[in-house]
Structures are given as C-alpha cells and as structure tokens.
C-alpha cells in the first residue's frame, strides 16, 4: 500500500511541475517549415510511446503470469519448437515501424528543404547569414543593409537564407521558424522559411564552437511588410555605412551587441559561392584556355627536341 501511494505521489509531482513549464519552442511553430518539423517530432513521440506502452504491458503480464511461484515444484515447461506467427509479429512489426518513420522522415526532409508550401510563386527575400566568433552578420543585398546579432523579416513572405561562416562551423537555428542547418567556410548552404505570425523569436548557433558558444545568439523580429519597408527606410536615413576596416574589426573573436549598417560586406568580402566558392577551380573557358596553353607548350618542346636530334 505504501509503495502505491509513493508511486502516485511521484506521478502527481511530475505532472504539477510540467504544467508550470513553458512549451518547447520547437513544438510551438510559427511558420510552415517549423510546423512540418514539429509534426514529425510528434509522430515520432507518439510512435515510440505506443511501442514503450505495449512492451511494458506485455512485460508486466509475463512477469506475473509466468512467475515461478505459480508453478508446482516438479513443473517442467513444455518443449516448444517455435511459433511462426509469434516470430512473424516480433520481426514484422519493428520493420513496419522503421519503414513508417523512414518514409515520414524522407517526405518531411524534402518539404523543409524546398520553398515553404503556399509561397512557391513568391520571389524570396534573400538574406546572407554569416557567422564569426561569436556573432552573426545578416546581409540584405536587395535592401543594401547589414545587421549584427539581430534580424528583421516581413511576415507571410518566403525568405531564403544563404549560410556560411567566417571561421568555425556553426549551425543556424530559429526553432519556431525552421530547423537547423550548418554554416561553413568555403561554401554556401541555403535554408528556406516563412514567418506567419508577427513577433520576436530566438535564434542561435546550435553547434558548439568554443568558449563563446553559449552567447552566440540573435533575435528575429517578424513584422508586416509595410513595417519592414519603413524599417529599411529608417536604416538608410540613420545608419553609418559599413567599411572594410570596420567589418574586419567585427570579425575579431568576442561578443557584440546589436549593430546596423548601410551597405553590406558582400561588396568587398563576397560570399563563397560561384566564382568565389572555396571549391571553384576556374570556369570551363579558363580550363579550355589552360589546356590550349599546355598543348602549345608541349608542341614547342617537341619541336625543340626534334631540332636538337637533327
């Protein structure tokens, strides 16, 4: 009896504590990409919970039904060769569960990698999000604006982030709007999202990258398009231009507050994409020209060798 009351007390205490907790940000989506991720998490939780409950019920039943105290001292269990139905169930059900979760994961991965559903006909707002130790730089090439450690975006608008790093690998993550994606040096990754609810959201680096990792965060504000346009006009009227010297100072390791500039660092330090990519080895024309140069050099060497032989 005491054990029963102890168990009930623990359950009630846990339930009381959990009711006072704020909801997990990833389970409180404010955009279609985050909603897809949240749905996959719930599907996984429910599937695993069903498995755990069924296994615990079966285990409890077997422990009580087949415990030794129920059998006489001279009891000998029957010799069983096997049961094809039981073996089919214990092998088939896990296969079905894994197949189901695999299909869900594959479909959701393609969904979150593409432009958000319902925004396919929109021209996305392009923002270059680059990281340095330990801060975030957001470049708006169309608006000719750059911000540090904060981000303004319009609601109900497709946004395409182009991610890269000026140093160590980081992971760009806005839990209520989209999942994580790595930002690396020498290449650009893209991440798509849309915010459907105005408000302030937390963003951060989700990949440990040194002593300043804990404060490697940024704020995201989603607002109607008219307010976003007004913000752009205000920045151009009040902010100082970003110079190469200032940007190099910003790249120094350390923490900074929120900063705003007109112009972007893309003008003098372009993102590692296209001809500026870290894995770029020249255009086809350059390769063809280089090949012709090698051929001409080879022909010249051959003629010189032939002349010496004569």
Please indicate the percent range of residues in DSSP E strands (runs of 2 or more).
15-25%
Query: What is the rounded Rg?
Result: 30 Å
Instruction: Give me the CATH architecture of the largest domain, please.
Output: Sandwich
Number of domains: 2
- Could you tell me the CATH topology label of the largest domain: Immunoglobulin-like
The number of helical elements comes to 6
User: pLDDT below 50 for ≥5 consecutive residues: which ranges?
Assistant: 280-292, 302-310
Description of the structure:
- The chain has 310 residues and is α+β, with helices and mostly antiparallel strands.
- It folds into two domains: 24-113, Orthogonal Bundle (Helix Hairpins), CATH 1.10.287; 125-273, Cupredoxins -  blue copper proteins (Immunoglobulin-like, Sandwich), CATH 2.60.40.420.
- Helices cover 42% and strands 21% of the residues.
- The chain has helices at residues 2-19, 32-65, 84-113, 225-238, 244-250, 284-309, and strands spanning 125-132, 135-140, 145-148, 150-154, 159-165, 170-174, 178-183, 189-193, 199-205, 217-223, 240-241, 259-262.
- Strands 8-5-1-2-3-12-11 form a seven-stranded mixed sheet. A five-stranded mixed sheet has the order 4-10-9-6-7.
- Helix 5 (244-250) links the parallel strand 11 and strand 12.
- It is elongated, with a radius of gyration of 30 Å.
- The termini are far apart.
């Amino acid at each position: 009896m005491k054990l029963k009351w102890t168990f009930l007390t623990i359950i009630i205490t846990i339930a009381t504590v959990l009711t006072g907790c704020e909801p997990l940000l990833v389970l409180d989506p404010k955009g279609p990409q985050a909603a897809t991720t949240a749905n996959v998490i719930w599907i996984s939780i429910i599937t695993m919970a069903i498995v755990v409950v069924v296994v615990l019920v079966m285990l409890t039943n077997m422990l009580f039904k087949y415990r030794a105290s129920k059998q006489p001292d001279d009891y000998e269990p029957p010799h069983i060769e096997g049961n094809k139905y039981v073996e089919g169930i214990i092998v088939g059900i896990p296969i079905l569960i894994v197949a189901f979760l695999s299909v869900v994961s594959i479909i959701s991965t393609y969904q979150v990698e593409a432009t958000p559903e319902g925004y396919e006909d929109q021209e996305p707002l392009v923002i270059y999000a680059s990281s340095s130790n330990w801060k975030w730089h957001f470049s708006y090439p169309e608006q000719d604006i750059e911000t540090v450690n904060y981000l303004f975006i319009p609601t109900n608008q497709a946004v395409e982030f182009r991610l890269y790093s000026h140093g160590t690998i980081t992971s760009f993550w806005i839990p209520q709007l989209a999942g994580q994606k790595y930002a690396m040096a020498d290449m650009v990754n893209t991440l798509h999202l849309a915010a459907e609810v105005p408000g302030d959201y937390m963003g951060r680096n989700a990949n440990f990258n040194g002593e300043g990792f804990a404060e490697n965060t940024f704020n995201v504000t989603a607002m109607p398009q008219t307010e976003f346009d007004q913000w752009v006009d205000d920045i151009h009227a009040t902010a100082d231009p970003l110079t190469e010297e200032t940007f190099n100072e910003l790249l120094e390791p350390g923490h900074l507050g929120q900063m705003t500039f007109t112009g972007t660092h893309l003008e003098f330090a372009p993102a590692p994409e296209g001809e500026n990519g870290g894995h770029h080895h020249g255009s086809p024309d350059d390769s063809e020209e280089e090949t012709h140069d090698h051929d001409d050099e080879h022909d010249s060497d051959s003629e010189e060798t032939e002349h010496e032989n004569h």
